[in-house]
Amino acid sequence: MTLNIGVIGTGAIGRDHMRRITQTLSGARISAVSDVNRAAAEASLAPLGLDAEVFATGPELIASPNVDAVLVTSFGAAHEPDVVAAVKAGKPVFCEKPLATTAQGCRNIVEAEVAGGRRLVQVGFMRRYDAGYRMLKQVIDKDGVGAPLMVHAAHRNPTVASNYVTEMAIHDTLIHEIDVFRWLLDDDYKTVQVVFPRRSPNAHEGLRDPQIVLIETVKGVRIDVEIFVNCVYGYDIQCEVVGETGLARLPEPMSIQSRSGARLSNPILTDWKDRFIDAYDVELRDFIDAASKGTAAGPSSWDGYAAAVAADACVEAQTSGQIVAVTMPQKPDFYNF
Ligand code: NAI
Ligand code: ISE
């Protein structure tokens, strides 16, 4: 059976996911699209040779009998109502990060899903599907470096759009690290702090960049993450886990090493789409497989909620300069699988 997927939000990542569902993955097709910018929704179809139905709103798309499952790839602030509507309609929904831009918004999604009694939401935390992070987790889980003590990490973008503001470093950028370290370490967060080095002259006015986020986990691991979104030289994701008996490092993406002009060199990627291209394929494979059985797998709405709670604490820490406690409510049994 082919799964009919409706896409809400046909911008950059919406179109990229439509491409992989149409051209790379099997078992699903794009049957419907919707975007507040109707012209964008219409324009997304021809390059992929699609004749999907165009809906004026997300709720109309969700209600269509020609939509079995939903992809929410609109702006973060628009995710919550469409994810809740899909859950209430009993349709599996893949929602790009962040699940919602507030912890309360994520909580509303969690409550709708628990009330329905069936897992239906997968959040687009694709790093959990990245081969490098999976290898790192295997080493940690198999006690390859002893119990983790510290994590040193960096998330660097060459540049960002002029509408990128200081708190987006948390909600838009750090949110990936917030999720992936909970999963990697099988741990939760206790406190956070944000410190600012001297501002880079390459950052646009009003943006504090770089930032260093210091996190303490419940098990006592200390994490430092450098967020630097105007690093100029490339898109660079680094992660090193120091354990009681050794150290494990996230592998560099595969690249050609060359020797030329008396130099030994490797290229560095510049676009996040290339860095995680395989992980996006694998996460959507997981979504199609689970959704075809009427359910969801992978990062859950509880994971989306947990990330939002920690992110809110980081934003508070950005402005207060203080160490801020992360207060996570008890995880419902529903999510202990
Ligand atoms: P974008 O700006 O290129 O596209 C967003 C689209 O959503 C636009 O076409 C806009 O008109 C549409 N839209 C906004 N509100 C809407 C609504 N209420 N209903 C229907 N359509 C609506 O943004 P981009 O880069 O595609 O990001 C979309 C989402 O994906 C964001 O939440 C972003 O954080 C996330 N994202 C995730 C990435 C990842 O690595 N997992 C990478 C890039 C983005
Ligand atoms: C973007 O929004 C993403 O989600 C990418 O995965 C991330 O690494 C990038 O830095 C963000 O701008």
Q: Topology as H/E string?
A: EHEHEHEHEHEHEHEEEEEEEHHHE
Second CATH tier, the architecture of the largest domain: 2-Layer Sandwich
Share of helix, binned: 25-40%
What is the β-strand count?
15
User: Given the helix and strand composition, which structural class is it?
Assistant: alpha/beta
Query: Distance between termini?
Result: 27 Å
Our count of domains comes out at 2
- The CATH H-level homologous superfamily of the largest domain: Dihydrodipicolinate Reductase, domain 2
Please state the overall shape, judged from the principal axes of the Cα atoms.
Answer: globular
Question: If you compute it from the alpha carbons, what radius of gyration comes out, rounded to the nearest whole angstrom?
Answer: 20 Å
Q: What name does the CATH topology of the largest domain carry? A: Dihydrodipicolinate Reductase, domain 2
Strand line-up in the sheet with most strands: 12-11-7-10-9-8-15
Note the beta-strand portion: 15-25%
Q: Which whole number gives the mean pLDDT?
A: 97
Low-confidence stretches: none
Distinct bound molecules:
1,4-dihydronicotinamide adenine dinucleotide, (2R,3S,4s,5R,6S)-2,3,4,5,6-pentahydroxycyclohexanone
Main beta-sheet strand count, sense and barrel state: 7 strands, mixed
CATH class descriptor name of the largest domain? Alpha Beta
Please supply descriptive tags for the structure shown above.
10 helices, binds 1,4-dihydronicotinamide adenine dinucleotide, Rossmann fold, globular, binds (2R,3S,4s,5R,6S)-2,3,4,5,6-pentahydroxycyclohexanone, 337 residues, alpha/beta, 2 domains, Dihydrodipicolinate Reductase, domain 2, 22% strand, seven-stranded mixed beta sheet, six-stranded parallel beta sheet
